[in-house]
Specification:
There is one protein chain. By secondary structure, the protein is α/β, with parallel strands linked by helices. The chain has a single domain, classed as YbaK protein (Alpha-Beta Complex). The strands form two sheets. It has a five-stranded mixed sheet. Strands 1-7-6 form a three-stranded antiparallel sheet. The longest helix is centred in the N-terminal third of the chain and has 9 residues.
Length: 163
């Protein structure tokens, strides 16, 4: 997809500057269906290759980002263990924009206001390319999981239920 003003989000600019290979795919969201499984379907992608970005707060009040397959749930105990916290909880939807600069449904792990500790679910390692939000609703960025981890200084850990 040629990149133009519509596809030039912060996340896309950062990946372009990194010179890493990536793709950008858009999808129609005029029906209001922006949940992860709907997005995977609209992209014609296996839901195991499409990942959602979840923002959490640890017992220490630190913010953490988890990138997990859209069809899975974050296991809070495993997530807490992965980042060395006693417990983890999801942040409120109203906190997403002030903390990340993004909105619900368009939150990318790349290009947040701050570089928060980021964990990619171990399942990402099994994929050659995964899709994450490109920073706005209707736009997804395809990138190799190791490249994404390098960009966001992320680590891999099992934070969702096993198949």
């Amino acid at each position: 997809m040629p990149r133009n003003a519509e596809t030039k989000t912060n996340a896309v600019r950062i990946v372009e500057q990194s010179r890493l290979p990536f793709t950008v795919q858009s999808y129609d969201h005029s029906d209001g269906q922006i949940d992860g499984l709907s997005v995977a379907s609209k992209l014609g992608q296996d839901p195991n290759r499409v990942f959602k970005t979840l923002v959490t707060r640890g017992a220490s009040k630190k913010i953490y980002v988890f990138v997990i397959p859209v069809g899975k749930e974050l296991l809070l105990k495993q997530a807490a263990k992965a980042v060395g916290e006693k417990s983890i909880e999801m942040i409120k939807v109203s906190e997403i924009n002030p903390l990340t600069g993004y909105i619900r449904g368009g939150c990318s792990p790349i290009g947040m206001k701050k570089l928060y500790p980021t964990v990619l679910d171990a399942a990402a390692r099994d994929q050659t390319q995964i899709f994450v939000s490109a920073g706005k609703i209707g736009l997804q960025l395809g990138i190799a999981p190791l490249d994404l981890a390098g960009l966001v200084k992320g680590e891999f850990a099992p934070v969702t239920e096993e198949e």
